[in-house]
């Protein structure tokens, strides 16, 4: 029942909007009078095709994706794409992959990319904001990047889920990258659809769905048309973006249920006013939480203010001996999954689109009461 649902601060798979879950539940056994569940029907049939097309079009509208970009729904997650991307982009004349490191996810991407180039030198880390002890508190400033003369592309992760570091390129930065003949490939897994983006600043945008989009199992790839024919000869057919694009993401059976639920989330988002409205709410939610942290004696967030993520808020208790009590009491108060990632420790509140303002208010109220009781 409604009463048993908690505020879920998990980093992913993450909370979904309640109206989406309710609609899904209502349609689960009999989709639109077909007598069949959506997950039991052919992906090539008229009913599912309509659901699929609507889902893709809604995403295109939400993110204002220009017509010279394809939207692909794939499998394998963002980590799968870390391999699929070089297999799709290294068949051209440029053979170097540049990576900017701002946390654990961009580092993982760089390590995977290094497997597909001729030598380690051809997958350079061109900037790194690791403080030397595995802590990341900002995104590397553009003027520190040591871009390769002829990079095929530049890996970035615009929201580092574990460290809570968020950054978007400015128009000047993306123009400079384009002028060099390269382009950004951006992992946006954990903040896609949290605010408007300018898709034209990127060659490729990708991510797993299980934070801001829907259930795990579907991977989104937004790719510029002119990048669809740069495959390495060994790129698997099912992961070949050209094949996927030419077959409306149905070269093989897509994750039909996950795509359908993503569509419900997109329609929910549109009903909220789209990503512009969502950004305004997300900014208020994030400010509420960061202000509560900054104004306390007990809590601390170390990320530099311009780079603080609006989606993933890691924080520490200055008295770490209180961690266990904090987690136990917050869970008992209906505030779930606040334990920080093991690489960072402490706490982390992920406040994606589906987290209502009331959830953040409840968290802040709990944190203040906890501090008072343990001050
Ligand atoms: N990239 C980012 C930024 C993430 O937050 C995650 C989280 O799971 C991943 C990649 C991994 O994605 P997946 O598990 O879908 O491969």
TrEMBL record:
SUPFAM superfamilies: PLP-dependent transferases. Residues 6-363 form the Aminotransferase class V domain. One of its GO terms (cellular component) is cytoplasm. One of its GO terms (biological process) is pyridoxine biosynthetic process. It catalyses: 4-(phosphooxy)-L-threonine + 2-oxoglutarate = (R)-3-hydroxy-2-oxo-4-phosphooxybutanoate + L-glutamate; O-phospho-L-serine + 2-oxoglutarate = 3-phosphooxypyruvate + L-glutamate. Pathway: Cofactor biosynthesis; pyridoxine 5'-phosphate biosynthesis; pyridoxine 5'-phosphate from D-erythrose 4-phosphate: step 3/5; Amino-acid biosynthesis; L-serine biosynthesis; L-serine from 3-phospho-D-glycerate: step 2/3. Belongs to the class-V pyridoxal-phosphate-dependent aminotransferase family. SerC subfamily. Homodimer. This is Phosphoserine aminotransferase. It comes from Formosimonas limnophila. The lineage of its organism: Bacteria, Pseudomonadati, Pseudomonadota, Betaproteobacteria, Burkholderiales. The gene is serC.
